[in-house]
Design brief:
Oligomer: single chain
Number of helices: 11
Order of helices and strands: HHHHHHHHHHH
Radius of gyration: 22 Å
Number of strands: 0
Structural class: mainly alpha
CATH superfamily of the largest domain: Tetracycline Repressor, domain 2
GO molecular function, one term: DNA-binding transcription factor activity
Keywords: DNA-binding, Transcription, Transcription regulation
Strand content: under 5%
Protein name: TetR family transcriptional regulator
CATH class of the largest domain: Mainly Alpha
CATH architecture of the largest domain: Orthogonal Bundle
Largest sheet: none
CATH topology of the largest domain: Tetracycline Repressor, domain 2
Organism: Cellulomonas pakistanensis
Length: about 230
C-alpha cells in the first residue's frame, strides 16, 4: 500500500479507537493490529501514540476551523452593519452543528478530550476552540461594535453554547433540525450580545445610574449607553 494511503488508513483506525476507548485505553499494539501492520511500520509514520493522537485531533480541528472561516467569510470586511454580526453568529453555530453531524462522536476528541493534564498537550487539543473564539471576538468587536474587552468575555460563551447545542443535538433522538438548532442558538446568543451594541440601553436593575457609570466595567456595555 502506498505510504500516503497507509497513513490515512492508520489515522482513520486511530480516530475510531481513540473515540470509542479514549487515549489512555488504546495502545499502539491495538492500532497496529487493527491496521494489520507491524509496529515498526506504524512507528515510521508516527513516532509515538501521543503524536498520532494529536494528528487525529488536528485534523478534526482543521475541519471545524474551515467551516467557521467559511461562515465568517460570508461577510467580508467593508461596509457592514452591526446586525450583520447576527447572520455571522448564525453561520458559526451552523458550522458547529454541521461539523458535529459529520464528525459524529469523534467530535468529542476536540470537546471532551481525556488528555488535558499536560499544559502543552491541552493547548494543542484546544487549539481549534481557541481559534474559533478569536474569530468570534473579532466579529463582535469589528462588525457588531461591541467594546473589545466585552467581546473578549462574550466570545467564549458563544462558542461554548454552540458546541454544547451541537453535541446535544447529536446525542438526543428526535432533536431539532440543523437549521432550527442554528437559528435558536444564534437567537439566544444575539439576544445577549444585542445588549452591548452601541446605543443599547441598560436594563433597570435598581442600581444608582451615577454609581454604575462610575464603576463601569467590561460587562456594563458601551460607555454611552443610557439607563432605561
Amino acid at each position: 500500500m502506498p505510504r500516503a494511503l497507509r497513513r490515512a488508513q492508520v489515522l482513520a483506525i486511530a480516530q475510531e479507537l481513540f473515540t470509542s476507548e479514549g487515549f489512555h485505553h488504546v495502545s499502539m499494539d491495538d492500532i497496529a493490529d487493527r491496521a494489520e501492520v507491524s509496529k515498526p511500520v506504524l512507528y515510521r509514520h508516527f513516532p509515538s501514540k501521543l503524536d498520532l493522537y494529536l494528528t487525529v485531533v488536528d485534523a478534526r480541528g482543521d475541519e471545524l476551523l474551515s467551516a467557521v472561516d467559511a461562515a465568517v467569510a460570508t461577510h467580508p470586511p467593508g461596509e457592514v452593519r452591526p446586525h450583520d454580526a447576527r447572520a455571522i453568529l448564525t453561520g458559526v453555530v451552523r458550522a458547529y452543528v454541521d461539523f458535529v453531524d459529520g464528525a459524529g462522536e469523534s467530535s468529542a476528541l476536540l470537546f471532551e478530550s481525556d488528555v488535558r493534564h499536560d499544559l502543552e498537550v491541552r493547548a494543542r487539543v484546544e487549539r481549534a476552540t481557541e481559534a474559533v473564539t478569536r474569530r468570534l471576538e473579532a466579529v463582535l468587536a469589528d462588525v457588531a461594535g461591541v467594546p473589545p474587552e466585552t467581546a473578549a468575555l462574550l466570545a467564549p460563551s458563544v462558542a461554548a453554547t454552540a458546541q454544547a447545542a451541537a453535541t446535544r443535538r447529536l446525542r438526543a433522538p428526535g432533536a431539532a433540525s440543523a437549521r432550527d438548532t442554528a437559528a435558536l442558538v444564534a437567537r439566544l446568543a444575539w439576544g445577549g450580545v444585542a445588549g452591548f451594541l452601541p446605543g443599547a440601553e441598560e436594563p433597570d436593575d435598581g442600581t444608582d445610574p451615577v454609581s454604575t457609570q462610575r464603576e463601569r466595567g467590561p460587562l456594563d456595555g458601551p460607555a454611552g449607553a443610557r439607563p432605561a
